[in-house]
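hey can u check if this looks right to u? its 136 residues, i copy pasted from the old doc so theres a chance i mangled smth
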Amino acid sequence: MIIYKLMRAYISSSSLRKSALRALAKTLIANQPFYLKEQFELLGPNKSGYIFLHNLKSALVKNSTDAMKDYRAIDFVNTVCTLQYRKLDFEEFAASANSVYQMEALETWEQHARRAYELFDSEGGSRFFPYFSLFL
């Protein structure tokens, strides 16, 4: 369920915050993206490597547990699907499903944040440097 909540927050975010989260996701190393890749594959991407929001609903129905039914997870996914977001590739999925709060707990958080800023800066976000941490 956390992935769905993170994706909803990402989809509703400003383009500037999305850019910051994409930069942060690019800093993932070694086995960190493995978990996200597994989650992405469970959502059934098409041959072009994209998932659509209806994939979220299908995956949830297919893998639903009683606890998820009690939580009314389908209603939650329906609200995400009404946001009319088109599609996500793995890179954008990683940005949307990556928890900043969990990353802050890592010993390597400072390096991730620094590298994310460098990527953000190289993509034209330097004028927002004073506010960069607010977007994460």
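The chain has ten helices and two strands.
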